[in-house]
Fold these 3 entries.
Entry 1:
Amino acid sequence: MNTIFRKSMLSVAGLAFAGGVVAGPIAAHAANPAVDAKPVAVAVQSAAPKPQGDQSHITLNDEQTANVKAIIAATKKAGLPERAAVISIATSLQESKLENLGHLGDANDHDSLGLFQQRPTSGWGTPEQITDPAYSTTAFLKGLRQVDGWQDMALTDAAQTVQVSAYPDAYAQWEQQATDLVGQHWNS
């Protein structure tokens, strides 16, 4: 019986302590009329989503940098925000390392071309159109706009919904570099 009594008392004491911890600041605030009880406005900045998983990085040459700028220009022309450019650049980094790929011959088992590895036989456009960075970006962005909620999706999910890749998670590894590139070139 002594053990039961002791456990009961400890339980009551624990509840009293927890109640004091919660009620103490409330009671202290209520007892002090000098404290202004008006809500305080807090500035909250919307941050870009944190990149998922391990990140890859490549050093860009002049052609690749020009392609970054072409993707950004097409994104701005389409009236889309920086996030669309980040998704586009990350997708192109995965698909072509930002190189405007022509016909790859035996190294390619399909007819994929350009910055986004788009296929003429899948309706992306003619080979000439697909290898035009402005056209291929606009085509990619058109697909992105058709994805409900793309603005709030993980980058790899948004890119995969447009691209339908055999490696759906591969886009995520380029998010940090794409974000940095957009930050560097968006206003230039």
Entry 2:
Amino acid sequence: MSEGRGTAAKVVQLYTPEERRRRDETVWTVVQGVLAPLQFVVFLVSLGLVVRYLLTGAGYEAATISIVVKTFVLYTIMVTGAIWEKVVFGKYLFAKAFFWEDVFSMLVIFLHTLYLWALLTGNVGPTGQMFIALAAYAAYIINAAQFLWKLRMARLQGQSDQAEAMA
């Protein structure tokens, strides 16, 4: 095996065999697998409603409801994701394999919570609330990309492990 290839194999080493077994056996993996695409669909609908409001001034209520729903779906996936991380890695957050994803998730949660604060206090007007939501959504897109990258790395690791087992 060449030096470069050995280094690449280390990069995709997200799970030990025991962590992979726990990941594959826990119901929380299925929960995450259902919630992640659900959250993305809610995000897309909400993004459309927010942009519509910002462009036309119409549909504030629909946009607001969609952002609140998106925020609660986010909270749900974050709590269940922390449980998943505890089952798989032994810590609720900031396990080595997902440290930076969890760090960025804190920004995503902060921005969504800031939106709720702005909505509930009225300290920020409707347009400002929508811009906070857009900032939260931009952070969410980056965070989702981080997790998709890790999913890809996990699949590559699985393929590599199967190839090694067959060799």
Entry 3:
Amino acid sequence: MFMGESTHNLDPKGRLTIPAKFRNQLGETFVIAKWMEHSLRAMPLDVWNKLEEQLNNLPIGKKDARAFKRFVMAGSMQAEFDKQGRVIIASNLKEHAKLEKEVVVTGVGDSFEIWSADNWQAYTEETAENFDDIAEGLVDFDF
């Protein structure tokens, strides 16, 4: 399970060091995809395969379904670590997530997300302010 958050810096070549606790769960090859709220989602191949199956089962007759599938599939890359545990983030993915220097890596269960530090801070502040309303609006979430 991916959980927690950590802050890292992109190096001048666009490489990002992934925390060891996350590297150990990813395997040698994994996928990084454009994701929601201007973030990236990194996932092991088995999680990617499930997502890909869900994308392929979207109704092609619906414009939003086609747009979502195109956005995720075209905005994905297969990735591997170098010997120092870094991964090169493709320029189109860096642009989407507005990654410049400071980056936050956040665990979200079966995968983890990569955010610009500024976007992550804004997102968490907004979410914290609305957390009670968000929790109240969830269906069948009993804890």
